[in-house]
Amino acid sequence: MSKQFDLVVIGAGPGGYIAAIRASQLGLNVACIDEWKNVDGSPAPGGTCTNVGCIPSKALLQSSEHFDLANHHFDEHGIVVSNVSLNLKKLISRKNSVVKQNNEGILYLFKKNKVSFFHGLASFVEKNKDYITIKVSSLNEELLAKNVIVATGSSAREYPGLKFDEKTVLSNDGALNIENVPKTLGVIGAGVIGLEMGSVWRRLGSDVTILEAMPDFLMAADSQISKEALKVLTKQGLNIKVGVDIIEVKNIGKSVSIKYKDKDASVKDLLVDKIIISIGRVPRTDGLNASAVGLNIDERGFIVVDDNCKTNLSNVWAVGDVVRGPMLAHKAEEEGVAVAERIVGQHGHVNFNTIPSVIYTSPEIAWVGKNEQQLKQEGRQYKAGSFPFLANGRARALGDTTGFVKIIADAVTDEVLGVHIIGPMASELISEAVTIMEFKGAAEDIARICHAHPTLSESMKEAALAVDKRSLNY
């Protein structure tokens, strides 16, 4: 007899596993299916984020930053280190252990919250009045679900005519597992993955060239932030070229040949040992057998949903990278919680206007809300204030004074419309901005809040004061 569940979640990435846990907390009988596995065949829940995305990349960024600090910055603190060497195998092994800890943590959370976990590929079989039938590749029996949440995530987009071999032509997966530091490394795409992975291997010794098709650097960010980021990352040693028109990319065995036109239309040739392709991601619906139940998928491969993440089928929902909106783990989590609550009749809500974006380079880059370019285009009247970390006592003590905090507020109401940060721990500092904006707070509200001294967060307070041209420490 088939097993019956109130809810079956397909995919155990950030959107899926969080949705399953929240639904179980709300009293539903829940199952979660995921096919990701470790090299030994054991389950590896957590999706792209845990296995080849957010978590392992941050582990490598941390390790590579330690290496860079030991080589170039410890002497500033009176710490004399000589003959610093790199054990890349151990560095990668540490990254793998961090990933495994997260895999095991999710399995523990499933057990703690009484979520039934099935390891295998899920596919739709049929839909009738009461249940949707789902096949799991590892089971002899099928699952019957009253409700389904599809959270199958996304895959790296291949460059046209160039297949990933994860040895020479790398996706984010291969970029995390390079066995030897390449002498030369090419990166196509100056987005989050390109900049983070480029930073990792640059610190470890690669000569890194990043090629970006867009005419300006980091066009999604505030222009002041992107200009500062380009200046700092270039100074660090990343060779970043924007406005590039790639003519041809060839995998020639142990190296990659790239022919491109640069911004002034000059044709250039670049030969690199390895290349990372970071030109976006595509929704993962292969193997789902969506047609068996009539699930609507658009021409780009995304599952079509309404504002509440409901599909064209009454009891099927979809969240995360497989639907519209930013491909961010925290966006997927918020959607997962909201959908679980909607299924039981509550009013789950996701505010797309306050979803922060973060790039974990050094310095970190983070923003939430509108930037100046967008507000000018909208014709909205605003005022802005900024404060440099150079004038922050804690930043000086850390020895990292790069960057600034910028706050943009409505010219009349003072409501915070956007916050943009480049500098130390920007990923943590942005949370205060998200909170203020969720409550439609004003720059004055931030300026009136007591911030502990000495902290980096004081730069947020000072930037808020600067909106009204009354910064106290700059």
UniProtKB/TrEMBL annotation:
Q: Which residues form the FAD/NAD(P)-binding domain?
A: 5-336
What residue stretches are annotated with the Pyridine nucleotide-disulphide oxidoreductase dimerisation domain? 355-464
Which reaction equation describes what this protein catalyses? N(6)-[(R)-dihydrolipoyl]-L-lysyl-[protein] + NAD(+) = N(6)-[(R)-lipoyl]-L-lysyl-[protein] + NADH + H(+)
Name the active site residues.
453 (proton acceptor)
Residues engaged in binding NAD(+): 189-196, 212, 280
Q: Cellular location of this protein?
A: Cytoplasm
At the top level, the lineage of the source is Bacteria
Q: Which Gene3D superfamilies match?
A: 3.30.390.30, FAD/NAD(P)-binding domain
Cofactor binding comment, as recorded: Binds 1 FAD per subunit.
Question: Which residues of the sequence carry a binding annotation for FAD?
Answer: 58, 152-154, 321, 327-330
Annotated protein name in UniProt: Dihydrolipoyl dehydrogenase
Q: What is the lineage of its organism?
A: Bacteria, Pseudomonadati, Pseudomonadota, Betaproteobacteria, Candidatus Kinetoplastidibacterium
